[in-house]
Design goal:
Blueprint (H helix, E strand, L loop, with lengths): L12 H16 L4 H9 L4 H13 L6 H14 L1 H17 L7 H6 L1 H17 L3 H15 L1 E3 L4 E2 L4 E2 L5 E3 L4 E2 L4 E2 L4 E3 L11 E2 L4 E2 L4 E3 L3 E2 L4 E2 L4 E2 L7 E4 L4 E5 L5 H4 L12
Parallel strand pairs: 1-4, 2-5, 3-6, 4-7, 5-8, 6-9, 7-10, 8-11, 9-12, 10-13, 12-14
Antiparallel strand pairs: 14-15
Helix pairs in contact: 1-2, 2-3, 3-4, 4-5, 5-7, 7-8
C-alpha cells in the first residue's frame, strides 16, 4: 500500500495580514486596485512581492525589471534570512513609527523600508562575490530612495529608518539588531584612511535626526544619540549623548530607547 504523506501548509501570519489589508485598501480606494494587486495580491509570498517591488523600483534603461526580478527571486530562495529580516523590519516600522497604521504601508509607500530591503539584496550579492552588481544596486537605491548604504556594511534585523532622507552607511559599518534612526544620519569615516574605518552600532540604539557617527568607534547597546550630534568616541551601553562633539549627558532613560523612540534628553517612558 502506498504511503500517504500529509501536506502541511506553511502559516505566515505577517503575509496573511498584508493580504487582508490589501483587500481592505482596494475596497476603500478602488483606484489603487491595480497597484495593490500587482504589488501584493498577485504574489504567493512576501518574498515574491518584495522581489517584484525591488525590480519595479530599481529598473532603468541600464537594467530591466526582468533581470532584477530574477536576481531578487534567487536571493530570497537562496537565503531565508532575507525574508526573516524583511518581516522583522516591517514589524519594527509598524511598532515604532506612529505614522504607520498598516503592514502594507512600508511595503508600498515607505522609502526607508524599501531601501533597506534593496540593500539586503545588494549585501547578498556582495557576499556571493558579485560585487559589481552589488554596486549597481547601491547606486540605484541611492538614486531612487536617497539612501546610500554600502553593500559590504552589515545591518541587523528590526531596523527602522524614519523618513530615510539622506541616510549614509559606510563600507565597514556594522548596525546591530532593533536599531532605529531618523533622516540625515551618517555612519561614516573621518578621512581617507582605508581598512576598518566606520562605526559599530550596538543593538537597540536610537540615532536622532542629523546625527553623524564617525570613525571606527563602538556605540554600546541601547544607547541614545541626540539629533544633530557628532559622535567621535566610543559610547558605553545605556547612555545618552548629545552635542558637537557629542558627550555623555546621562543614562539612556529606559531599557529600549530604539523601541520607545523618545528623544528627550531627560529620560523616556518605560518601554518594557
Amino acid at each position: 500500500m502506498a504511503e500517504v504523506k500529509a501536506k502541511v501548509t506553511t502559516v505566515d501570519p505577517v503575509w496573511s495580514r498584508v493580504c487582508d489589508e490589501a483587500r481592505e485598501a482596494i475596497a476603500s480606494e478602488p483606484l489603487l486596485g491595480g497597484l495593490i494587486h500587482s504589488s501584493l495580491l498577485h504574489h504567493s509570498s512576501m518574498e515574491r512581492a518584495l522581489a517584484y517591488r525591488f525590480s519595479l523600483k530599481l529598473a532603468s534603461g541600464e537594467m530591466s525589471e526582468q533581470i532584477l526580478r530574477e536576481i531578487a527571486d534567487r536571493a530570497y530562495d537562496s537565503d531565508p534570512e532575507l525574508g526573516a529580516a524583511a518581516r522583522a523590519d516591517l514589524m519594527a516600522v509598524y511598532d515604532r513609527d506612529p505614522a504607520c497604521h498598516r503592514f502594507i504601508q512600508p511595503i508600498l509607500f515607505f522609502k526607508g523600508y524599501q531601501a533597506v530591503q534593496a540593500y539586503r539584496i545588494g549585501h547578498w550579492l556582495w557576499m556571493q562575490g558579485r560585487k559589481d552588481l552589488a554596486y549597481f544596486v547601491q547606486m540605484r537605491v541611492s538614486e531612487v530612495f536617497g539612501v546610500d548604504i554600502h553593500p559590504a556594511a552589515r545591518v541587523g534585523k528590526g531596523l527602522m529608518i524614519d523618513h530615510a532622507h539622506s541616510i549614509v552607511i559606510g563600507e565597514t559599518a556594522v548596525v546591530g539588531d532593533n536599531v532605529s534612526m531618523l533622516h540625515s544620519v551618517t555612519l561614516g569615516g573621518t578621512g581617507k584612511e582605508d581598512g576598518d574605518r566606520h562605526p559599530k552600532i550596538g543593538n537597540g540604539v536610537l540615532i536622532g535626526a542629523g546625527a553623524k557617527v564617525l570613525g571606527n568607534i563602538t556605540i554600546g547597546n541601547c544607547s541614545r544619540i541626540a539629533a544633530g550630534s557628532v559622535v567621535l568616541q566610543d559610547i558605553p551601553p545605556m547612555k545618552t549623548v548629545a552635542g558637537v562633539p557629542a558627550k555623555i549627558v546621562g543614562e539612556a532613560g529606559c531599557s529600549q530607547p530604539a523601541v520607545s523612540m523618545d528623544h528627550k534628553l531627560t529620560g523616556c517612558v518605560d518601554c518594557d
